[in-house]
Specification:
The protein has about 260 residues and is α/β, with parallel strands linked by helices. It is built from nine helices and twelve strands. A hairpin with a 2-residue loop joins strand 1 and strand 2. Helix 4 packs across helix 5.
Length: about 260
Amino acid sequence: MDLKVSNLEVFLENKRILKNIHLEAHEGEIISLIGPNGSGKSTLVKTISRLIKAHSGEISYSGRRIGSIPTKELARLIAVLPQEKKLNTDLTVEQLVSYGRHPHLSFGNRFGSEDREIVMEAMRLTGMTDYRDRSMHSLSGGERQRAWISMALAQQPRFLILDEPTTYLDISYQMEVLELVENLNRSLGITVLMVLHDLNHAWRYSDSIYVLKDGSVHSHGRPGDVIDRNMLKDVFGIDARIYEDTANNCKFFIPGGRTKEGA
């Protein structure tokens, strides 16, 4: 499922947050958004998810304008996991994952055997089958994130949007979640758009990267073409050394300190 964003502008409380945004995600890709705090990353994914209304510009999925897609159909096409997730009740994992089937149930239709099979498969794909009867509040951070991803998979989406999926997780769980996302992308062909803070993670797990600065796209392209010393200085205000990671066929950087501009 392709995504195309053209000439997008977003105002919040009379302040322009995004300006002249152009972005494309092609079917089966993993796209990461990176940039400093306040650069507009979360606003962009919320607008793409139709949670925020754009002031101008166009967003389309596979050639269809987002505003023309009925809400329930959009929920079957796109699964969105926000950074902050609220649980008002002590749900079990299976109950949470079952919520992913709601967009597929017509009015008056009951949850059926096919829906249960899809829920079980979503939990199997994320390694959550043995946790099905566990309370969400009893899980670790990484386990909870896998449960939320299971719910998203139960929607059977063609496009998955993740807003900072590794926030509040230690390094082991961060790797676990990103490897899960990568495996699901490769095995199911789901297009993924995610916001990441760790640039080395973005480098390793993305097919392409969009860098935001002050509400605009600073640069975009393949990770190795985008993340370089000049971009790190210009966008993040840091000096860095870049190294080759031959084991994972990518590069990584180590910050050497803040530049005068970033101080």
